[in-house]
Amino acid sequence: MKPIVETLIDRGLSLFSGQRLEDIRAGLGYTAVKLDTQKAGVACMLRHRLGKSTCSLLPNAGSLSGMTADRALPLLRSSNPVEASIGLAALNAMIDSDGTGESSNDDLVEMLGITREDRVGMVGDIMPLLRMIRDHAGDCVVFDEGKNEEAGITATDLEREELPRCSVVLLSATSLLNGTFDDVLSMVSGAREICVIGPSAPLLPDIFRERGVTLLSGRRFTDVDRLLRIVSEAGGTKCFGPVSVKVNIRLRE
Fold this sequence. Notes:
Layout: H1 4-15, E1 21-26, E2 30-35, E3 40-44, H2 69-72, H3 81-94, H4 105-112, E4 119-123, H5 127-134, E5 139-143, H6 159-162, E6 168-172, H7 181-187, E7 193-197, H8 205-209, E8 215-221, H9 224-232, E9 244-250
Parallel strand pairs: 4-5, 4-6, 6-7, 7-8
Antiparallel strand pairs: 1-2, 2-3, 8-9
């Protein structure tokens, strides 16, 4: 099967109908892209991958707004975290998710059906959700490449040993940005539930269903201009509530 990034770029190109990037905000927590269709999408900013070699992270900064979306999408392949986030945010802005209904973290936990018999693996630390899951699960193990030294986080070099033992896995959509999605998915193919989660998650059910993902959990943004302001002011997931709705999509009955 084609790598997920290539599949996502191909899908974005199939959705392209002349859209342009009207505004780009590369914040400390997220990148946001607003299209000239007045739709917006976000992607996480992997700050721990930015490095410290220069204060200018994009040599072509100041010339990106106005580019057509078909030129932005291939940036998802980039090893530059800022460019990759622009590519994914552009894709998310192109996806028409208006027909998706509002949901919640409570709904998500219920949909996963977690019990004391389950060992839950989380790739990407999503603490508010983890607190809820711990009330239901028998055991939880959390990996996060940006927090490898923190208490409660298991080193990512143990993923190949620990994840195959998990019956429920929540995989942050940031794995689409750091190039780990396909590898991690191969480790958890035997899990009862595999959920791709986060504001960066492209709401494209068919692409994730064919890879064995059972639940897709993302966001649909309802106040684009306020979203841009939040991202510009270093806001992130905790600030997105008033400008978005959470969307949980069951991919397998």
